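Memo to structure team: turn this sequence into structure tokens by end of day. - J.P.
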Amino acid sequence: MSNDPGRITVEVEGRRLVLSNLDKVLYPAAGFTKAQVINYYQRIAPVLLPHIAGRPVTIKRYPDGVDAKFFFQKNAPAHPDWVPTARLPSPGSTKSRDTIEYILGGDLPTLIWAANLAALELHTPMWRYPDVGRPDLLVFDLDPGAPATVVQCCKVATLLRPLLTDMGLEPAAKTSGGKGLQLYAAVAKLTSDDASALAKELAERLETDEPELVVSRMTRALRPGKVLIDWSQNNAAKTTVAPYSLRAREQPTVSTPVRWDEVESCKRPEDLRFTADDVVRRVEANGDLFSAAT
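Reply from structure team:
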């Protein structure tokens, strides 16, 4: 143990970690501390880790809590030599880098190390290293334009589902942890361009069939009261919040896998809003509802 009362040394699967500032409140409205963030990630790890294993992880850090400044971090910060990383090309980098050294998800010590950095959110692409640009997942990010809410997203999800099952795919749904909903389906033998084209085709089909509900274009003027099906999240360079990741909202909400009966019966946004404690209880009762998208 460290002699500094603000720091403790722990061992996680044989790796030594120094945890600090555990009493710092990162979600002021909920009184949710850094210790509780770390505890959540430790408890949810058995179902979270399979979904991020081998994926380059972009972390979203809130060192002074969700009400203060934050930053996305793609390039791995200073880290122990056991943290798995991969140096990958960085086309279009805003910092003019040719490559970025990404953290690779998949093990508990790395997850706890990142949580100790106040990495509240974990974002990953649809592919795993070393298969850069060869997705194993197809994603539809359903984003409601006010006054639409997740209730309308659920209606769109129920329209998308049979289109995917008719193709032999098994879609799984999760909340974004914010205002939207996301559908994933396991795929094989596609490029990211293929996946984007397929998702765009289905989004445009639904926009044609349900023009008062669905929009497939990013144009903001088209979006009020409708649900954007953001097919572009399949781009190899883009990331989506990982299943079971915390979100930096007023409350410690989570991107939560949900059952299809919950999607079909959603009547209020509150029906599909889950916090860290809720999600731990759900997993204890139901296991991983997103296993089809592993």
